[in-house]
């Protein structure tokens, strides 16, 4: 589960940087090849940060309430240096991406304020809508994963323990992060909504229920008598 969570925040970081790049340099676009390269890099990033326990740095274990197997945050094992691995994972898997995201959106806000008049048309509206969508996705991610990261850090360094069902709340909240993006995407993307309606056989609200009357042409033959 740690690889999936790290890859998720990696994708959001790339999206934030891509939004910043598109706003600052709107004439340059990201090619399909570059997009695939970035997507592959994000998964390599997520998997790489999760590999050290396999070579003896840190350990895997069951999360609270045995929900899933992940990095063992609660275990204090000097032989595997779990404390240094948790610090490494917390910095490169959470703090660094969040810092890049905040930096990107600070640049986006500043740029949009400067070019507000020039982006008043339909193209500017689309750019702002996409930027808002990515921002909401990032906020949803932070809402889901910040409690998990906070309690994991507190458990490792301050021996803070949650008991009972409360211990499962951060883990369940973190797992729920996969549910937010489709909802946000569907709410802010008209084409996605139309595709979903079409898939379930629903009529679009803008679709006309009746047929438009076609004007008929009448040929008039005029004969002239002499």
UniProtKB/TrEMBL annotation:
Molecular function GO terms recorded: G protein-coupled receptor activity
Transmembrane domains' residue ranges: 6-24, 36-55, 85-109, 130-153, 165-188
Main location as per UniProt: membrane
Keyword entries, A-Z: G-protein coupled receptor, Glycoprotein, Membrane, Receptor, Sensory transduction, Transducer, Transmembrane, Transmembrane helix, Vision
Alphabetized Gene3D superfamilies for the sequence: Rhodopsin 7-helix transmembrane proteins (1.20.1070.10)
Membrane topology listed for this record: Multi-pass membrane protein
Compartment(s): Membrane
UniProt cross-references to InterPro entries, sorted A to Z: GPCR_opsins, GPCR_Rhodpsn, GPCR_Rhodpsn_7TM
G-protein coupled receptors family 1 profile domain sequence ranges: 1-185
GO cellular component, one term: membrane
UniProt-listed PROSITE patterns: G_PROTEIN_RECEP_F1_1, G_PROTEIN_RECEP_F1_2
GO biological process: visual perception
Family to which the UniProt record says this protein belongs: Belongs to the G-protein coupled receptor 1 family.
Record's protein name: G-protein coupled receptors family 1 profile domain-containing protein
UniProt lineage: Eukaryota, Metazoa, Ecdysozoa, Arthropoda, Hexapoda
């Amino acid at each position: 589960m740690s690889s999936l969570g790290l890859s998720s925040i990696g994708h959001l970081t790339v999206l934030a940087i891509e939004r910043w790049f598109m706003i600052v340099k709107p004439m340059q676009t990201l090619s399909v090849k570059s997009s695939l390269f970035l997507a592959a890099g994000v998964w390599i990033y997520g998997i790489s940060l999760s590999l050290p326990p396999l070579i003896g740095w840190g350990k895997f274990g069951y999360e609270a309430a045995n929900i899933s197997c992940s990095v063992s945050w609660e275990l204090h094992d000097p032989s595997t240096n779990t404390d240094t691995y948790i610090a490494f994972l917390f910095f490169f898997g959470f703090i660094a991406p969040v810092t890049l995201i905040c930096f990107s959106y600070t640049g986006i806000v500043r740029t949009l304020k400067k070019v507000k008049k020039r982006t008043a048309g339909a193209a500017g509206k689309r750019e702002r809508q996409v930027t808002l969508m990515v921002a909401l996705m990032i906020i949803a991610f932070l809402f889901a994963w910040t409690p998990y990261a906070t309690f994991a850090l507190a458990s490792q360094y301050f021996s803070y323990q949650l008991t009972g069902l409360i211990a499962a709340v951060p883990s369940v909240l973190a797992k729920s992060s996969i549910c937010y993006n489709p909802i946000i995407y569907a709410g802010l993307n008209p084409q996605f909504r139309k595709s979903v309606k079409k898939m379930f056989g629903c009529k679009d609200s803008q679709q006309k229920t009746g047929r438009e009357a076609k004007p008929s042409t009448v040929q008039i033959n005029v004969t002239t008598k002499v």
